[in-house]
Amino acid sequence: MIRGRPTFWLLTAALLVLGGAGLGLWPRAAEAEGSPDYSKVKGPDECAECHKKEVAAWKETHHFKTFTDLPRAKEAKEISEKLGLKRIKTESVCLDCHFTSQAKGDKPRPIAGITCESCHGPADGWLKRHSEFSGKKKETESADERAKRWADAEKAGMIRPDNLYQLAKNCYSCHVVPKEELVNKGGHAAGSAFELVSWSSGEVRHNTWHNGGKENRDDTPERKRMMYVMGVMVELETALRAVGSATASAKYAVAMAKRAHAARKELREIARETKLPEVMAALRAAHSASLKLSNESELTAAAEKVGEAAKEFAAAHDGTKLAAVDGFIPGPDKYKGKVAQ
Ligand code: HEC
Ligand code: HEC
Ligand code: HEC
Ligand code: HEC
Question: Given this model, what pLDDT does residue 4 score?
Answer without folding.
Answer: 43
